[in-house]
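User: Okay, second chain of the day. Same drill as before: sequence in, structure tokens out.
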Amino acid sequence: MSCILILLGFVLSGCWDRHELNDLAITVGIGFDTSGKQYLVTAQIVNPNEVAAKKGSGYSTPVTTLSATGVSTLEAVRKLTTMAPRKIFASHLRILVIGEDLARQGINKVMDGISRDHEVRSDFYIIVAKGTTASKVLKVLTPIERIPANKMFKTLETSEKSWSPTVSVQLDRFLTNLGDPTREAVLTGLVIKGYSKKGESRTNLNETSPLSILEYSGLALFKQDKLVDWLNEDESKGYNYIMGNVKSTMGHLTCPEGGTLSLEIIREKTKMKGKMVNGKPEINIHVFVEENVSEVQCHINLLDPQTIPELEGIAEANLTKIMYAVIQKAKQNKADIFGFGEAIEDVAPKTWTLMKSDWGNEFAKLKVKIDVDIQIRRVGTINNSLIERPEE
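Assistant: Same drill. Structure tokens below.
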């Protein structure tokens, strides 16, 4: 019996790897940059005294950023302990920022370390610092959300649901795309607007119009593990329509007699199908969109039976144009970011086996047909625009 009790003591000792909260530096944001032949790692660490309810002094910043260089990213993280009084703890990581210079050089090596770390969960988002470094991004203080990493996380989630040019990518999905030899990855870009240096001080939090703002802008297009190009706002929208990612967004079109009319997209569904035509691969894309009229700034009679079909035709032509534009941008870079290769493999596995080793060149000359069907459902609580005035 005594032997059994002793053995149970070993099994039930569940606190051997515990960490006391007072010994941890909670890291919510990590940034990777280049520094010569080494990597620069920046950690955004929560200042617990400033974010605790009713205890903030109002004099210190809610976060502290520390940076260190190393031959590997994990070596640089360990080097941060020479500056931080606590262990760097990344289990609550919200955002991973990759500097543009590093992204253009290739990120396979830096992603290896963070994907192996058992303390890091995979539910954080990965973004690219557009035209700047990850270190500068993580140093900008943000109003409304006191912790900048949380601001970046929540802004990306919100904009993806309400504004179509952004896309949220977590670690598992990004690694899957990096490891797929026939499908390329995209990440949302983030820019610093205003004075980045002034954004590092508390002054940025005390202004009604912050001196420095973090704003998502465009999608980074990757070829293998390297950033090769940027998609602009319309091209980013086109990408999300092709991928069926659009949940809700706003758009506008030019009315037949001038002026603009805004439309709210309330539903979108995309079907992508590969086929072989005369021995050559082809992609057919069908996009169905439901929209509501949300704002009219032109002279137009919405009660005329011909008006809604005419507006639907204009909207279909506009959407088709931006979808073809992003496909052309991807073809120029020979980067299949849409998964067209997988669609071809589904219908012609033997043909796919022959062409997959040179899929970049095959993708560049792939024929793509797009069919867009837009239905305008509602015109709002009033019929014609307030611009329309009855003649006296």
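The two ends are 104 Å apart (CA to CA).

User: Thanks, on to the next one.
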